[in-house]
Specification:
Shape: globular
Strand content: 5-15%
CATH class of one domain: Alpha Beta
CATH superfamily of one domain: NAD(P)-binding Rossmann-like Domain
Order of helices and strands: HHEEEEHEHEHHHEHEEHEEEHEHHHHHH
Helix content: 40-55%
Bound molecules: glutamic acid
Distance between the termini: 34 Å
């Protein structure tokens, strides 16, 4: 395999994303110019800014990449990590474009990165870095409700999003839509219920869809459904924790968890909440009661299980460890966890890969709901909740009268109830993940030459993006 610089070696993350794109493009007949326009990064902003810390002055490197302007605004998280690079942010921005298209979220893809190890900085310093980075984005018009809307990613959370919102709002006094300049905010700052757990919940919905059909489970030797499946999760951060928790609630047994400090396994199952509480108390998942410690955490991924959920960073399953992976299904909760070479090895072994570009789209889906909420300035469900409740109540009274049967108070409360914000968010997320899976699945089954779900997902995404260029008259 050759790299962009002509040397032999593994593909870069961005080359890897483009490899998936090219594999899908083979099944499409669009003009080369259109395909090139879709796969190219439209705008790349690199910035270096000084920050005063306890250790003196430091110059921090940051990026914001807008991969596609075929829809506005652009959308994608901001990552804080010591290894962030321009090429990585480009890859992640490209994935956002395809992800948004797949789940019919009307945004172009973007991504931001700040090259820091957040653990090295105090909360004060992180706030200064975040506000300064935001100011740099404002200066270049790289942020705004209709321009580019960041969100949390690896190393960031609602706290950073609140600082971004506050900085943006201070620079734009009176801008009534300012809260829609960033998503993943705390509820008090205009966030939406269910955003924190959205990516993990989406992973669960996607897995549930993929495992539902007996015909699809036969080649991997599994029975349909999630109940009793054994699961290993890499990463107990926001995405990994919630994905594991929802899978556990659906009857899966979590038999291994890997974190950067080490891993733990227990064939009888690990209670995700108890492990998380143990980690909060001891700063480590190691020495969890009843579990076996695996000091080299990557070794956990190689243990026997039905479903492996990498939910940390990219390039975790490589040509080196792929031959030893025993999972039947790899569910990519992280972005880009499998390298190109590893993907070929897993495919040859018959492993079913549920691709990141679909599976972790729950986060941006619920970000879209938050953005809509911010623009409409009203809590989701506020207008209809009572109306629905009284309409259901009237129907129940009529049924009771006609059948001469009465419902208990509990039954009545259960049935005659209007939707809260969280109900609407979760229902919108479930609908989105199911619909997108069916569309991808159709592409997969439509042509026996389409090798896998990732290629099918890229076909589906490219088709949707191509339509917007063609109908604009930019390409024939
Ligand atoms: N960072 C998340 C992702 O990679 C969420 C992006 C968003 O909500 O805009 O999908």
């Amino acid at each position: 395999m050759s790299q962009a610089d002509g040397t032999n070696g593994p593909l870069s993350f961005f080359e890897n994303v483009n490899r998936s794109f090219d594999r899908a493009a083979r099944f499409l007949t669009y003009p080369e110019g259109l395909l090139t326009q879709i796969r190219t990064c439209n705008s790349v902003y690199a910035v270096q800014f000084p920050i005063r810390t306890r250790h003196g002055y430091e110059v921090i490197a940051g990026w914001r990449v807008q991969h596609s302007h075929h829809k506005a605004p652009c959308k994608g998280g901001i990552r804080y990590a010591p290894v962030v690079s321009e090429q990585e942010v480009q890859a992640l921005a490209a994935l956002m474009t395809y992800k948004c298209a797949l789940v019919d979220v009307p945004f172009g893809g973007a991504k931001g990165g700040v090259q820091i190890d957040p653990k090295r900085y105090s909360v004060d310093e992180l706030e200064r870095i975040t506000r300064r980075y935001t100011a740099e984005l404002i200066k270049k018009n790289f942020i705004g409700p209709g321009i580019d809307v960041p969100a949390p990613d690896y190393g960031t959370s609602g706290r950073e999003m609140a600082w971004i919102f506050d900085t943006y709002a201070s620079f734009h006094p009176g801008q009534i839509d300012a809260a829609a300049c960033v998503t993943g905010k705390p509820i008090s700052q205009g966030g939406v219920q269910g955003r924190v757990e959205a990516t993990g919940r989406g992973v669960y919905f996607g897995l549930r869809e993929a495992c539902e059909n007996a015909e699809d489970m036969k080649p991997v030797g599994l029975s349909p459904g999630l109940a009793d499946k054994t699961v290993i999760v890499q990463g107990l951060g926001n995405v990994g924790y919630h994905a594991a928790k929802f899978c556990q609630e659906a009857g899966c047994r979590i038999v291994g968890i890997a974190e950067y400090e080490g891993g733990i396994v227990n064939a009888r199952g690990l209670d995700v909440d108890a492990v998380r509480a143990h980690r909060a108390q001891t700063q480590s998942i190691l020495d969890f009661p009843g579990a076996e410690n695996v000091p080299q955490s990557p070794a956990v991924l190689e243990r026997a299980c039905d479903i492996l959920i990498p939910a940390a960073l990219e390039n975790q399953i490589t040509a080196t460890n792929a031959p030893r992976i025993q999972a039947k299904i790899v569910a990519e909760a992280a972005n880009g966890p499998i390298t190109a070479q590893a993907e070929d090895i897993l495919a040859a072994k018959g492993v079913l890969i549920i691709p990141d570009v679909y599976l972790n789209a729950g986060g941006v889906t619920v970000s879209y709901f938050e953005w809509l909420k911010n623009l409409s300035h009203v809590q989701l469900g506020r207008m209809g909740k009572r109306f629905d409740q009284s309409a259901f109540d009237k129907i129940l009274h009529t049924v009771e009268r006609l059948t001469d049967k009465g419902l208990s108070e509990g039954e009545r409360r259960e049935v005659a109830r209007g939707a809260d914000e969280i109900d609407l968010v979760n229902s919108g997320l479930e609908e989105t993940m199911i619909t997108a899976y069916r569309q991808i699945y159709e592409e997969w089954r439509a042509d026996t030459q389409v090798p896998d779900l990732r290629t099918a997902a890229f076909i589906s995404a490219i088709k949707k993006i191509a339509v917007s260029y063609i109908e604009l008259g930019i390409f024939p």
